[in-house]
Design brief:
alpha+beta; Chitinase A, domain 3; 4-stranded antiparallel sheet; two-stranded antiparallel ribbon; 6 strands; elongated
Length: 364
Amino acid sequence: MAFGSRFRWVYALFLCASVALAGCGGEEAPEPAAVSIDRSAEAATVNGQIIYVADVELEARMKGVIEEGETLEPSSVEFDEILDQLIEVKLLSMEAIARGLDEDPEARHRLETARDNILGNILLDVIASERIDEAEIRKMYETQVELLEQQMENEARLRHILAPSKDAIDKIAAEIKAGADFAVTAARRSADEATRMDGGDLGYMTAEDASPEFARVIREVAQGGVSRPFEDAQGWHIVKVEEVRKRRPPSIEELRDRIERYLKAQQLEQILTELRADASIVKRNSPHGARPAEPAPVRPAPRPSPEPATAPADGAAPEPAPPPAAAAATTPPVTAPASRPAPPPSGGTAAETREAPAPAPTPQ
Protein backbone atom coordinates (compact mmCIF):
# COMPACT_ATOMS: atom_id res chain seq x y z
CA MET A 1 0.00 0.00 0.00
CA ALA A 2 1.10 3.58 -0.53
CA PHE A 3 2.38 4.19 2.99
CA GLY A 4 2.74 7.97 2.54
CA SER A 5 -0.92 8.62 1.78
CA ARG A 6 -2.09 6.01 4.29
CA PHE A 7 0.04 7.54 7.02
CA ARG A 8 -1.29 11.01 6.35
CA TRP A 9 -4.84 9.73 6.63
CA VAL A 10 -4.24 7.83 9.86
CA TYR A 11 -2.30 10.73 11.34
CA ALA A 12 -5.29 12.97 10.63
CA LEU A 13 -7.51 10.42 12.36
CA PHE A 14 -5.43 10.76 15.53
CA LEU A 15 -5.63 14.54 15.39
CA CYS A 16 -9.32 15.01 14.62
CA ALA A 17 -12.09 14.56 17.10
CA SER A 18 -14.74 13.59 14.57
CA VAL A 19 -14.28 13.35 10.81
CA ALA A 20 -17.42 12.87 8.73
CA LEU A 21 -16.94 10.20 6.09
CA ALA A 22 -17.99 11.47 2.68
CA GLY A 23 -19.33 8.97 0.10
CA CYS A 24 -16.98 6.03 0.40
CA GLY A 25 -15.67 4.75 -2.89
CA GLY A 26 -17.81 7.24 -4.79
CA GLU A 27 -20.73 4.79 -4.79
CA GLU A 28 -23.98 4.94 -2.94
CA ALA A 29 -24.19 2.16 -0.36
CA PRO A 30 -27.05 -0.30 -0.83
CA GLU A 31 -29.94 -0.31 1.61
CA PRO A 32 -28.99 -2.39 4.68
CA ALA A 33 -30.64 -5.79 4.75
CA ALA A 34 -33.09 -6.42 7.54
CA VAL A 35 -30.98 -9.04 9.31
CA SER A 36 -29.88 -9.48 12.89
CA ILE A 37 -26.30 -8.33 13.46
CA ASP A 38 -24.20 -9.91 16.21
CA ARG A 39 -22.35 -6.92 17.62
CA SER A 40 -20.24 -9.16 19.86
CA ALA A 41 -18.83 -10.91 16.77
CA GLU A 42 -15.24 -10.32 15.75
CA ALA A 43 -14.78 -7.95 12.84
CA ALA A 44 -11.00 -8.45 12.68
CA THR A 45 -7.97 -9.38 14.75
CA VAL A 46 -4.70 -7.46 14.68
CA ASN A 47 -1.76 -9.43 16.06
CA GLY A 48 -4.23 -11.27 18.26
CA GLN A 49 -6.13 -8.19 19.47
CA ILE A 50 -9.81 -8.25 18.59
CA ILE A 51 -11.82 -5.48 16.94
CA TYR A 52 -15.49 -6.23 17.42
CA VAL A 53 -18.43 -5.36 15.19
CA ALA A 54 -19.64 -3.15 18.06
CA ASP A 55 -16.36 -1.19 17.91
CA VAL A 56 -16.88 -0.42 14.23
CA GLU A 57 -20.51 0.63 14.79
CA LEU A 58 -19.52 2.88 17.70
CA GLU A 59 -16.86 4.56 15.57
CA ALA A 60 -19.36 5.01 12.72
CA ARG A 61 -21.82 6.63 15.12
CA MET A 62 -19.16 9.00 16.48
CA LYS A 63 -18.29 10.05 12.92
CA GLY A 64 -21.93 10.65 12.02
CA VAL A 65 -22.04 7.86 9.44
CA ILE A 66 -25.03 6.35 11.26
CA GLU A 67 -27.47 7.83 13.75
CA GLU A 68 -28.22 6.63 17.26
CA GLY A 69 -30.18 3.38 17.05
CA GLU A 70 -29.09 2.61 13.48
CA THR A 71 -26.87 -0.32 12.55
CA LEU A 72 -24.07 -0.68 10.02
CA GLU A 73 -24.17 -3.78 7.84
CA PRO A 74 -20.81 -5.62 8.11
CA SER A 75 -20.84 -6.28 4.37
CA SER A 76 -21.19 -2.57 3.51
CA VAL A 77 -18.46 -0.40 2.03
CA GLU A 78 -18.74 2.02 4.97
CA PHE A 79 -18.20 -0.75 7.53
CA ASP A 80 -15.10 -2.00 5.71
CA GLU A 81 -13.70 1.53 5.38
CA ILE A 82 -14.07 2.25 9.10
CA LEU A 83 -12.69 -1.19 10.00
CA ASP A 84 -9.57 -0.47 7.92
CA GLN A 85 -9.14 2.81 9.78
CA LEU A 86 -9.36 1.07 13.16
CA ILE A 87 -6.88 -1.60 12.00
CA GLU A 88 -4.35 1.04 10.96
CA VAL A 89 -4.76 2.96 14.20
CA LYS A 90 -4.29 -0.30 16.12
CA LEU A 91 -1.11 -1.10 14.15
CA LEU A 92 0.38 2.30 14.89
CA SER A 93 -0.53 2.02 18.57
CA MET A 94 1.02 -1.44 18.84
CA GLU A 95 4.22 -0.24 17.18
CA ALA A 96 4.43 2.74 19.54
CA ILE A 97 4.05 0.42 22.56
CA ALA A 98 6.61 -2.01 21.15
CA ARG A 99 9.08 0.87 21.00
CA GLY A 100 8.31 1.85 24.58
CA LEU A 101 6.91 5.21 23.53
CA ASP A 102 4.02 4.86 25.97
CA GLU A 103 6.51 5.05 28.84
CA ASP A 104 7.86 8.41 27.74
CA PRO A 105 6.89 11.13 30.27
CA GLU A 106 5.54 13.43 27.57
CA ALA A 107 3.52 10.58 26.05
CA ARG A 108 2.08 9.70 29.47
CA HIS A 109 1.10 13.31 30.01
CA ARG A 110 -0.58 13.51 26.61
CA LEU A 111 -2.46 10.26 27.19
CA GLU A 112 -3.69 11.38 30.59
CA THR A 113 -4.68 14.81 29.25
CA ALA A 114 -6.50 13.21 26.33
CA ARG A 115 -8.42 10.97 28.74
CA ASP A 116 -9.40 13.98 30.89
CA ASN A 117 -10.45 15.95 27.81
CA ILE A 118 -12.61 13.13 26.49
CA LEU A 119 -14.30 12.56 29.85
CA GLY A 120 -14.88 16.29 30.21
CA ASN A 121 -16.54 16.45 26.82
CA ILE A 122 -18.68 13.42 27.56
CA LEU A 123 -19.81 15.10 30.78
CA LEU A 124 -20.61 18.29 28.87
CA ASP A 125 -22.62 16.32 26.29
CA VAL A 126 -24.59 14.62 29.06
CA ILE A 127 -25.28 17.91 30.84
CA ALA A 128 -26.27 19.59 27.59
CA SER A 129 -28.73 16.81 26.78
CA GLU A 130 -30.24 17.18 30.26
CA ARG A 131 -30.48 20.97 30.35
CA ILE A 132 -30.84 22.10 26.72
CA ASP A 133 -34.16 21.28 25.10
CA GLU A 134 -36.01 22.39 22.00
CA ALA A 135 -37.88 25.10 23.91
CA GLU A 136 -34.60 26.70 25.01
CA ILE A 137 -33.17 26.49 21.49
CA ARG A 138 -36.29 28.15 20.08
CA LYS A 139 -36.22 30.85 22.73
CA MET A 140 -32.62 31.67 21.87
CA TYR A 141 -33.48 31.66 18.16
CA GLU A 142 -36.32 34.12 18.65
CA THR A 143 -34.06 36.40 20.68
CA GLN A 144 -31.39 36.29 17.99
CA VAL A 145 -33.85 36.97 15.17
CA GLU A 146 -35.31 39.92 17.06
CA LEU A 147 -31.84 41.42 17.53
CA LEU A 148 -30.82 40.62 13.98
CA GLU A 149 -33.91 42.22 12.45
CA GLN A 150 -33.03 45.49 14.17
CA GLN A 151 -29.82 45.77 12.17
CA MET A 152 -30.86 44.14 8.88
CA GLU A 153 -31.40 46.50 5.97
CA ASN A 154 -34.17 46.24 3.39
CA GLU A 155 -33.13 44.55 0.18
CA ALA A 156 -34.06 45.68 -3.31
CA ARG A 157 -34.49 43.80 -6.55
CA LEU A 158 -32.70 45.77 -9.24
CA ARG A 159 -32.65 45.86 -13.04
CA HIS A 160 -30.00 47.80 -14.91
CA ILE A 161 -29.01 48.83 -18.39
CA LEU A 162 -25.33 49.28 -19.22
CA ALA A 163 -24.10 51.53 -22.04
CA PRO A 164 -20.58 52.42 -23.19
CA SER A 165 -21.00 56.21 -23.15
CA LYS A 166 -23.02 59.04 -21.60
CA ASP A 167 -24.64 59.87 -24.93
CA ALA A 168 -25.81 56.27 -25.33
CA ILE A 169 -27.23 56.02 -21.81
CA ASP A 170 -28.96 59.42 -22.13
CA LYS A 171 -30.80 58.21 -25.24
CA ILE A 172 -31.87 55.00 -23.43
CA ALA A 173 -32.96 56.98 -20.37
CA ALA A 174 -35.11 59.20 -22.65
CA GLU A 175 -36.80 56.09 -24.06
CA ILE A 176 -37.56 54.81 -20.56
CA LYS A 177 -38.90 58.22 -19.51
CA ALA A 178 -41.14 58.22 -22.58
CA GLY A 179 -42.74 54.98 -21.42
CA ALA A 180 -40.61 52.18 -22.85
CA ASP A 181 -40.63 48.99 -20.78
CA PHE A 182 -37.39 48.80 -18.79
CA ALA A 183 -36.90 45.03 -19.06
CA VAL A 184 -37.62 44.96 -22.79
CA THR A 185 -35.28 47.90 -23.38
CA ALA A 186 -32.57 46.19 -21.33
CA ALA A 187 -32.91 43.07 -23.46
CA ARG A 188 -32.53 45.15 -26.63
CA ARG A 189 -30.01 47.80 -25.64
CA SER A 190 -27.94 46.80 -22.60
CA ALA A 191 -24.25 46.08 -23.12
CA ASP A 192 -24.21 43.70 -20.14
CA GLU A 193 -24.33 40.27 -21.74
CA ALA A 194 -24.62 38.55 -18.34
CA THR A 195 -28.01 40.10 -17.52
CA ARG A 196 -29.33 41.47 -20.83
CA MET A 197 -31.51 38.47 -21.72
CA ASP A 198 -33.02 38.56 -18.23
CA GLY A 199 -34.13 42.14 -18.72
CA GLY A 200 -31.12 43.46 -16.79
CA ASP A 201 -32.20 41.59 -13.63
CA LEU A 202 -29.54 41.76 -10.89
CA GLY A 203 -31.61 40.02 -8.24
CA TYR A 204 -31.96 41.14 -4.62
CA MET A 205 -29.24 42.98 -2.73
CA THR A 206 -28.88 45.38 0.16
CA ALA A 207 -27.01 48.66 0.13
CA GLU A 208 -24.41 46.96 2.29
CA ASP A 209 -23.94 44.25 -0.37
CA ALA A 210 -23.67 46.58 -3.33
CA SER A 211 -20.97 48.80 -4.81
CA PRO A 212 -21.15 52.46 -3.69
CA GLU A 213 -22.91 53.62 -6.87
CA PHE A 214 -25.59 50.93 -6.65
CA ALA A 215 -25.91 51.38 -2.88
CA ARG A 216 -26.82 55.03 -3.51
CA VAL A 217 -29.61 53.92 -5.84
CA ILE A 218 -30.97 51.47 -3.27
CA ARG A 219 -31.04 54.18 -0.60
CA GLU A 220 -32.38 57.04 -2.71
CA VAL A 221 -34.74 55.58 -5.34
CA ALA A 222 -38.21 54.41 -4.31
CA GLN A 223 -39.76 51.11 -5.37
CA GLY A 224 -40.72 51.29 -9.04
CA GLY A 225 -38.44 54.27 -9.66
CA VAL A 226 -35.59 54.63 -12.14
CA SER A 227 -32.27 56.25 -11.30
CA ARG A 228 -30.54 59.01 -13.18
CA PRO A 229 -27.66 57.84 -15.41
CA PHE A 230 -24.43 57.29 -13.50
CA GLU A 231 -20.97 56.01 -14.29
CA ASP A 232 -18.78 53.38 -12.66
CA ALA A 233 -15.79 51.29 -13.73
CA GLN A 234 -17.93 49.27 -16.18
CA GLY A 235 -19.55 52.14 -17.99
CA TRP A 236 -22.80 54.11 -17.77
CA HIS A 237 -25.90 52.73 -16.06
CA ILE A 238 -29.51 53.42 -15.35
CA VAL A 239 -31.14 51.27 -12.68
CA LYS A 240 -34.74 50.44 -11.88
CA VAL A 241 -35.73 49.47 -8.32
CA GLU A 242 -38.17 46.69 -9.13
CA GLU A 243 -39.13 45.78 -5.55
CA VAL A 244 -38.12 46.58 -1.98
CA ARG A 245 -38.69 44.08 0.81
CA LYS A 246 -37.59 43.32 4.33
CA ARG A 247 -34.66 41.00 4.33
CA ARG A 248 -35.55 37.60 5.70
CA PRO A 249 -33.67 36.34 8.77
CA PRO A 250 -32.06 32.88 8.78
CA SER A 251 -34.25 29.93 9.74
CA ILE A 252 -33.94 28.09 13.03
CA GLU A 253 -32.29 25.16 11.24
CA GLU A 254 -29.66 27.46 9.74
CA LEU A 255 -28.79 28.74 13.24
CA ARG A 256 -29.34 25.51 15.19
CA ASP A 257 -25.70 24.40 15.35
CA ARG A 258 -24.50 27.84 16.47
CA ILE A 259 -27.27 28.08 19.05
CA GLU A 260 -26.44 24.65 20.48
CA ARG A 261 -22.73 25.51 20.69
CA TYR A 262 -23.53 28.78 22.42
CA LEU A 263 -25.88 27.17 24.94
CA LYS A 264 -23.35 24.42 25.58
CA ALA A 265 -20.69 27.05 26.30
CA GLN A 266 -23.05 28.62 28.83
CA GLN A 267 -23.61 25.23 30.47
CA LEU A 268 -19.85 24.71 30.61
CA GLU A 269 -19.47 27.98 32.49
CA GLN A 270 -22.21 26.99 34.90
CA ILE A 271 -20.96 23.46 35.60
CA LEU A 272 -17.40 24.72 36.15
CA THR A 273 -18.70 27.25 38.67
CA GLU A 274 -20.62 24.49 40.46
CA LEU A 275 -17.67 22.11 40.46
CA ARG A 276 -15.28 24.77 41.75
CA ALA A 277 -17.68 25.58 44.57
CA ASP A 278 -17.66 21.92 45.70
CA ALA A 279 -13.96 21.25 45.15
CA SER A 280 -10.89 21.88 47.28
CA ILE A 281 -8.44 23.67 45.00
CA VAL A 282 -5.07 24.91 46.20
CA LYS A 283 -2.65 26.47 43.74
CA ARG A 284 0.70 25.83 45.39
CA ASN A 285 2.57 28.46 43.42
CA SER A 286 -0.25 30.95 43.00
CA PRO A 287 0.28 34.31 44.74
CA HIS A 288 -3.43 34.37 45.54
CA GLY A 289 -3.80 30.80 46.76
CA ALA A 290 -6.95 28.98 45.87
CA ARG A 291 -9.28 30.68 43.44
CA PRO A 292 -12.55 31.33 45.24
CA ALA A 293 -15.71 29.95 43.72
CA GLU A 294 -17.97 32.59 42.27
CA PRO A 295 -21.71 32.43 41.73
CA ALA A 296 -22.79 31.76 38.16
CA PRO A 297 -23.14 35.16 36.46
CA VAL A 298 -26.46 36.29 35.10
CA ARG A 299 -25.88 36.80 31.38
CA PRO A 300 -27.98 39.26 29.38
CA ALA A 301 -29.40 38.20 26.05
CA PRO A 302 -26.43 38.00 23.65
CA ARG A 303 -26.11 40.40 20.75
CA PRO A 304 -25.02 39.23 17.33
CA SER A 305 -21.27 39.41 16.90
CA PRO A 306 -19.59 40.39 13.63
CA GLU A 307 -17.34 37.32 13.87
CA PRO A 308 -18.64 33.82 13.01
CA ALA A 309 -17.69 30.86 15.15
CA THR A 310 -14.35 29.34 14.17
CA ALA A 311 -13.32 25.74 14.41
CA PRO A 312 -10.69 24.94 17.06
CA ALA A 313 -7.24 23.89 16.00
CA ASP A 314 -6.52 20.17 16.07
CA GLY A 315 -6.27 18.93 19.62
CA ALA A 316 -7.04 22.36 21.10
CA ALA A 317 -9.88 23.31 23.36
CA PRO A 318 -12.62 25.11 21.44
CA GLU A 319 -13.29 28.77 22.04
CA PRO A 320 -16.70 29.66 23.47
CA ALA A 321 -19.22 30.04 20.66
CA PRO A 322 -20.24 33.62 19.83
CA PRO A 323 -23.92 34.55 19.75
CA PRO A 324 -25.40 32.33 17.06
CA ALA A 325 -26.78 34.92 14.68
CA ALA A 326 -23.30 36.30 14.05
CA ALA A 327 -22.36 34.60 10.81
CA ALA A 328 -25.77 35.08 9.29
CA ALA A 329 -25.63 38.87 9.68
CA THR A 330 -23.08 39.54 6.96
CA THR A 331 -22.96 38.97 3.21
CA PRO A 332 -20.16 39.45 0.68
CA PRO A 333 -20.13 42.83 -1.11
CA VAL A 334 -21.33 42.98 -4.70
CA THR A 335 -18.69 44.79 -6.68
CA ALA A 336 -19.54 43.77 -10.25
CA PRO A 337 -23.16 44.61 -11.06
CA ALA A 338 -22.68 43.59 -14.68
CA SER A 339 -22.70 39.93 -13.66
CA ARG A 340 -25.53 38.49 -11.60
CA PRO A 341 -24.56 38.61 -7.91
CA ALA A 342 -25.00 35.55 -5.79
CA PRO A 343 -28.13 35.76 -3.62
CA PRO A 344 -27.31 36.96 -0.10
CA PRO A 345 -26.92 34.07 2.33
CA SER A 346 -29.65 33.79 4.89
CA GLY A 347 -27.68 33.64 6.94
CA GLY A 348 -12.01 8.56 19.92
CA THR A 349 -12.07 5.86 18.52
CA ALA A 350 -8.84 5.88 19.48
CA ALA A 351 -8.61 9.38 18.22
CA GLU A 352 -8.10 10.49 21.72
CA THR A 353 -7.98 14.14 20.80
CA ARG A 354 -11.69 14.70 20.75
CA GLU A 355 -12.40 18.33 21.61
CA ALA A 356 -11.39 19.35 25.08
CA PRO A 357 -13.78 21.25 27.34
CA ALA A 358 -13.44 24.97 26.69
CA PRO A 359 -12.50 27.47 29.35
CA ALA A 360 -15.43 29.30 30.87
CA PRO A 361 -16.52 32.18 28.64
CA THR A 362 -15.93 35.64 29.98
CA PRO A 363 -19.23 37.22 31.04
CA GLN A 364 -20.31 40.06 28.74
